[in-house]
Amino acid sequence: MNVLVIGGGGREHAVIRKLKENPEISRIYALPGNGGIAADAVCVPIGAKDIPSIVSFAEANAIDYAVVTPDDPLVLGCVDALEEIGVPCFGPRANAAQLEGSKVFAKELMKKYHIPTARYEVFADMEAALRYLDDAPLPTVIKADGLALGKGVIIARTREEARDAVREMMEHKKFGKSGERIVIEEFLEGPEVSVLAFTDGKTLVPMVSSMDHKRAGDNDTGLNTGGMGTVAPNPYYTEAVAKRCMEEIFLPTVSAMNAEGRPFKGCLYFGLMLTKDGPKVIEYNCRFGDPETQVVLPLLESDLFTIMRAVTEGRLDEVEVKFSDKSACCVILASEGYPGSYDKGYPLTIPEEIRDKVFVAGAALRDGALVTAGGRVVGCTAVADTLPRAIEDAYALARQVKFENAYCRSDIGRRALEALAEGEK
Ligand code: AMP
Ligand code: GLY
Fold first, then answer.
1. What whole-number distance in Å separates Cα of residue 332 and Cα of residue 329?
2. Which residue CA neighbors atom 6 of ligand 1 most closely?
3. What is the pLDDT, as a whole number, of residue 361?
4. Is CATH 3.30.470.20 the right assignment for the domain spanning 192-424?
5. Which end of the chain, N or C, is more open, meaning fewer C-beta atoms within 10 Å of its C-beta?
6. 359 Cβ neighbours under 8 A, 6+ residues apart
7. Structure pTM?
């Protein structure tokens, strides 16, 4: 079978590695993929948002199945377009991808179906938003409605910061159309947990939980990034919490989407905060998270392609989805300066013997050799019997990957270790 994977980051590399375990797949194409993914798939320089070219490519290359991984193509209707030419896909259609594509949609859905989330107000008028901020409780959270490369959320600690954020989004149009409407919501506190789940719109099977590290610097300082590292499982996500999330959040979300005539099929990502009043939804994503996927899929013992096809065909209840009870840690090596501006084009060396543990996110091939080409360059993932060991091993891997101006956080997993220690007291 010929399988197409849309996207070109570390997450896509992790998906492709896992798909390769299935003997029925003869060829994997990555659009556009990257220099590192080229070792595992045929990379074709078609952008993930170029849906007409993706469709033409699928038609011309006898594609039997497509995995649409990033948010943009999903929201733009890549799955709808591929299904129209008869290519079965993993990923939601555009009407269901709105769960991530519009924060206003997501918030209104949660309100209507009583799914726990932060209290909020929606504004399409800047003056009204500014007036509301005159006596909104602080800190307050300002969110652009649409996709904003993960940068559309501002936690404002003062009224001035809050007003600046509103003006940036609504007056200066920092995120273009994505900021035409904004959500101003209650600031929540508590440990964060990411849960990815497979769902075919009827059955929902959560994957192992994980913990992201979003800030660029140690001890959660510095700018928000796409994610600088992950561990799985997340020690805060106990069985009792998992049960509550399933009953109060996961299943109600699947039902709500069905009731709205927008059945969700694919990977549904729940960004949760465990507040003192119980678990609440911070955000939904309509796709695999990155770098969450780089720790979650290495722990998956069942065959990914079998699960994906079952999701597409609405028979997820018939397949086994089994995760190892080991732990995983992924340390991201980024280009110094990320998420701001950074230099690229430096030679990147990954020793042969650790290739299968390194997922390449931002690299290109120049004269057959890898060079850096992005902010997040590689993810180094170790799986071990215990979390401390996985963390140690992931850092040992990271030390073996070399490029000029590399940086990583030195504390990936520290909070998880503290939580484990707390739990044992
Ligand atoms: P998002 O881009 O929606 O993932 O948000 C980025 C980060 O902002 C989240 O991971 C949280 O740490 C934080 N955040 C978002 N919404 C809230 C909220 N209502 N209260 C506290 N923190 C939040
Ligand atoms: N790591 C968070 C995300 O993928 O959105």
1. 10
2. 153
3. 98
4. yes
5. C
6. 10, 11, 13, 14, 17, 36, 294, 330, 378, 379, 381
7. 0.97
